[in-house]
Design goal:
The protein is an all-alpha fold and 372 residues long. It has one domain. Helix content is 73%, strand content 0%. It starts with a helix and ends with a helix.
Length: 372
């Protein structure tokens, strides 16, 4: 009888306090997803995966267990993040960027946090590839962060992915103080009238094709990322494969998001997560977001001066890839200064530019460090 009882209670008897802590972390992620609605489509599966992975003697993490199979199938070969990019492309309207091509410069400037954080992480003792993986948190792009980390530092994948998605959800909290600190009330009150500049269907179709050709030839390592993003956008803009575009935007994205989230959660084991490195990664991830925002706003101030104060520097903050949250933050801060200030569509331009710039930055990091 005692032996049978021991077998039934094997999970409880094998449970360590570290695993209990990680289960609590998983529960906290689920709470944030449901109660606070912080990136719920990712944090909820990640939280569930974390709890499941830390239940002892389940066999789910063993070579033939479901989590090991999913990891090998979708993370080790980068399949899941690339499929997510197809869905993101199908959901993204690059019209605001095509209407205001100058915003591509703002998107590029807002990637400074990636390389600044890479330098800081390297100085703190991380290897150059680990530092690069941490810096990519500053792309404000979860799939790009996962893609680079899975290649350069798979042992750091869990904290990097959680930090990336957590800070993306907290953009409305992180960005406004930086934006207000770096701009004057007069600058925030600059009104940019919105005049719609229709973009032809031909331009919309040629844009994704031209983008993945040019980016692929300049930064070949970025081709898988930019190629899948722009392929999804081509499905959207072609106008003749609506069924495929809707499938990419809905069924494909939803299914892969479930598998991606729960698989990342399964990597959040006590041994790999409860260490000082994890705390450092979260601190540097926050630093990356702050540096991105600051660089975008400061470049926006330069553009403001060059344009004769016709460009509101706040739109530089939306050069990060957190779409469309960052653009909405710019709109909110602008309206706080002047209720008649409508910056959303202008900010959307730099926000979509940031999506492309973050992918290019990830590809550049892979190209520069791939052989080191």
């Amino acid at each position: 009888m005692a032996g049978v009882l021991g077998d039934l209670l094997q999970g409880f008897l094998s449970l360590t306090w570290q695993q209990g802590v990680m289960m609590a972390v998983g529960g906290a992620l689920i709470y944030l997803a449901i109660a606070k609605e912080y990136e719920p489509v990712l944090l909820l599966p990640i939280g569930a995966g974390t709890i499941l992975a830390n239940i002892p003697v389940t066999g789910m993490l063993e070579a033939d267990g479901i989590f090991a199979v999913l990891y090998d199938f979708g993370i080790r070969n980068e399949l899941f993040p690339l499929l997510i990019f197809v869905g993101i492309g199908a959901m993204t309207d690059f019209g605001p960027l095509l209407e205001r091509p100058f915003t591509v410069l703002l998107g590029a400037a807002a990637q400074f946090g990636i390389f600044g954080t890479l330098l800081v992480a390297a100085l703190m003792g991380f290897s150059i590839k680990e530092a690069a993986s941490i810096g990519i948190i500053g792309s404000a792009d979860g799939p790009t962060s996962i893609y680079v980390a899975s290649k350069f530092a798979p042992h750091l994948l869990a904290p990097i992915a959680v930090a990336a998605y957590s800070y993306m959800s907290m953009v409305p909290i992180i960005q406004p103080p930086v934006m207000r600190f770096l701009t004057t009330g007069e600058e925030r009150r600059i009104i940019m009238p919105y005049t719609e500049r229709p973009v032809s269907r031909t331009t919309r179709i040629l844009f994704p094709i031209t983008t993945f050709l040019i980016v692929g030839l300049i930064v070949p390592k970025a081709t898988p990322l930019i190629g899948m993003l722009m392929f999804g956008n081509l499905l959207r803009e072609a106008g003749v494969v609506g069924r495929l575009a809707r499938a990419a935007e809905n069924e494909l994205t939803n299914l892969v998001t479930i598998f991606l989230g729960i698989t990342i959660g399964s990597t959040m084991t006590a041994a790999g997560f409860l260490n000082p490195q994890t705390i450092l990664i979260f601190v540097m991830g926050l630093l990356a977001f702050v540096m991105d925002t600051a660089a975008g706003v400061l470049f926006g101030k330069l553009v403001c001066v060059v344009s004769g104060k016709r460009i509101n520097p706040l739109i530089g903050a939306s050069g990060i890839s957190a779409f469309p949250m960052s653009a909405r933050v710019v709109q909110k801060v602008g309206q706080e200064a002047d209720f008649n200030n409508h910056l959303l569509m202008h900010a959307m331009g730099s926000n979509t530019a940031g999506q492309i710039a973050s992918v290019m930055a990830g590809g550049a990091v892979l190209a520069l460090l791939g052989g080191s």
